[in-house]
From TrEMBL:
Family per record: Belongs to the DAMOX/DASOX family.
Organism: Gomphillus americanus
GO cellular component: cytoplasm
Name the record gives this protein: FAD dependent oxidoreductase domain-containing protein
FAD dependent oxidoreductase domain location: 6-388
C-alpha cells in the first residue's frame, strides 16, 4: 500500500473548511485541520460567522478573483437547490414573481465608493451594461429608474443565494468529518508548527492509539491572522470592519444600496439586508471601514443601520403591532456584532512557498486575504489550492 500524503490545514473558517473538504475528495491525501476557532465560536479573530452571507460578484473582469467567484457559483447554487441542510438558499425565483430577487441600487453620487477603492471597483463592475457575471447568476438584468426606489436612478436585479454561516460552517465541518478529516483545536505561533500536529486518529475512546505525525505539506487558511503569524507575517493584510445587526424579521428580497440620506451617512456605511435560510432571521448591514481593528459594537452605528433598513425596506415593519414608537425601534434585535474582513492589497493570496522553521521545512500553500468575498469565492479558491497542492506533491517526490 502506498503512503498517503499527510496534509495539515490551518484554519476552520469558510476557507479552511472548504479547502479541507475539497482535498479530502482525493484518496491519496489524509487531512487534519487545526484551528484556534471552530464553527460555533464567535470571536473578532474569526471572520466567517459574521458574514451575511451572500453572492454579489465583486471581482474585476479578467482577474484571478473572477475565476474564483465564477467557479464557486455552481457549488453554492447546487447546494441551494438540492441540499437545504447546508443553510444555503436561493434569493429570487426563476419566475421572479413572489420574490423579486437580489436588488442592488446605485445612488446618484456614490459617496462611499469615493472613499474606498474596493467599493469603487465593485460598483464599477456591477454597473457595467454587460458585466462578466451576467451569464453566471440567473436572471441578471438592469433595472429602469421607475423600478428603483426614489433617489436611485439605476440598479440591477438577479437571482442570488444567501447562506446562513451558523448552519453552513457546521455543515462543511460535518462533511469533512464524514470524509475522514480530523480536527484539533490549537493556536500556533509559527506556520511550520502545524506540521507536528498531523493526526492519524481522532481523540476518542474508539481510537485510543492517537499518534501525532509530521505532515508532508501545510495549507495556510488563517485569514487576517496571517499578518502576525510567524513564517508568514504578511504586511499586505488589513482589516475592513463590518458591523452588522441580526433581527428576527425577514426581508422578502436581498437589497444593497447606499444610504438614502447621503449627506449625513457616516464614512464607510451603506445599507444591506438579507434573510438567512432556515428561519435564521435577517442580517442588516452595515459598515465597510478600512483599516479599523475595533471589535466593539458601536451603538450609534447600530441605530443608523436599523434606521436605514426600515427606510430601504419598509415591509420589514409592515406587520408590527408596536405603536407609538419610532419605526426603527419596532424591529426585534437579536444581537449586533462586528467582524473584520481579511482584506489584502493585491487581493487574495493563493500561492505555494517553501518555508523553513525550527523543526520542519516544506511546502506551505497559502489561501488567505479574501476580504468581503470569502464565501462567494470559497470553492474556486479551494480548487486553485488543490492544484497547487498537486504541484507541490509532485515536486517533493
Ligand atoms: C460583516 C461581514 C460581512 C461579510 N459578508 C460577506 C458576504 O456576503 N459574502 C462573502 O462571500 N463574504 C463575506 N464576508 C467575508 C467573509 O466572511 C470572509 O472573507 C471569510 O469569512 C474569511 O474566511 P477565512 O476562513 O479565510 O478566515 P476566518 O473565518 O477568519 O478563519 C480563520 C481561521 O484561522 C484560524 N487561525 C488563525 N490564526 C491561527 C493560529 N495562529 N493558530 C491556529 N488557528 C488560527 C482561526 O481560528 C480560524 O479558524 C463578510 C465578512 C464580514 C466581517
Amino acid at each position: 500500500m502506498t503512503e498517503k500524503i499527510k496534509i495539515v490545514v490551518v484554519g476552520a473558517g469558510v476557507s479552511g473548511l472548504t479547502t479541507a473538504l475539497l482535498l479530502s475528495q482525493n484518496s491519496d491525501y489524509k487531512i487534519t485541520v487545526i484551528a484556534k476557532h471552530q464553527p460555533g465560536d464567535l470571536d473578532i479573530e474569526y471572520a466567517s460567522p459574521w458574514a451575511g452571507a451572500n453572492y454579489i460578484p465583486v471581482a474585476l473582469a479578467g482577474s484571478h478573483e473572477e475565476v474564483y467567484e465564477r467557479n464557486t457559483w455552481d457549488w453554492l447554487y447546487d447546494l441551494a437547490r438540492y441540499t437545504p441542510e447546508s443553510g444555503v438558499h436561493l434569493v429570487g425565483t426563476f419566475e421572479g414573481k413572489d420574490r423579486p430577487g437580489c436588488h442592488e441600487y446605485f445612488p446618484p453620487r456614490a459617496k462611499d465608493s469615493e472613499d474606498s477603492p474596493d467599493l469603487r471597483q465593485w460598483r464599477d463592475e456591477i454597473e457595467k451594461p454587460n458585466p462578466w457575471f451576467e451569464n453566471v447568476v440567473p436572471n441578471w438584468r438592469q433595472l429602469s429608474e421607475s423600478e428603483c426606489p426614489a433617489g436611485y436612478p439605476r440598479g440591477v436585479s438577479f437571482t442570488s443565494i444567501c447562506l446562513n454561516p451558523q448552519i453552513y460552517l457546521p455543515f462543511l465541518q460535518s462533511r469533512c468529518i464524514k470524509a475522514g478529516v480530523k480536527f484539533r483545536r490549537l493556536d500556533i505561533s509559527h506556520i511550520t508548527q502545524a506540521a507536528q500536529y498531523f493526526l492519524h486518529n481522532q481523540r476518542d475512546t474508539m481510537a485510543p492509539n492517537i499518534k501525532n505525525d509530521t505532515a508532508d505539506l501545510i495549507v495556510n487558511c488563517t485569514g487576517l491572522s496571517s499578518h502576525k503569524l510567524g513564517g508568514v507575517k504578511d504586511e499586505k493584510l488589513y482589516p475592513v470592519r463590518g458591523q452588522i445587526v441580526l433581527i428576527q424579521e425577514e426581508v422578502d428580497y436581498m437589497i444593497s444600496c447606499a444610504d438614502e440620506d447621503q449627506d449625513t451617512a457616516a464614512e464607510g456605511e451603506f445599507c444591506y439586508a438579507m434573510s438567512r435560510g432556515a428561519g435564521g432571521g435577517s442580517i442588516l448591514g452595515g459598515t465597510y471601514q478600512i483599516g479599523n481593528w475595533d471589535g466593539k459594537v458601536n451603538d450609534s452605528t447600530t441605530e443608523r443601520i436599523l434606521r436605514r433598513a426600515v427606510k430601504c425596506c419598509p415591509a420589514l415593519i409592515a406587520g408590527s403591532q408596536k405603536t407609538g414608537i419610532e419605526d426603527w425601534k419596532k424591529l426585534t434585535v437579536v444581537r449586533a456584532g462586528v467582524g473584520l474582513r481579511p482584506a489584502r492589497k493585491d487581493g487574495v493570496r493563493i500561492e505555494s512557498e517553501l518555508i523553513t522553521g525550527k523543526a520542519w521545512k516544506g511546502w506551505v500553500v497559502h489561501n488567505y486575504g479574501h476580504g468581503g468575498y470569502g464565501y462567494q469565492s470559497s470553492w474556486g479558491c479551494a480548487r486553485q489550492v488543490a492544484k497547487l497542492v498537486r504541484d507541490c506533491v509532485s515536486r517533493a517526490l
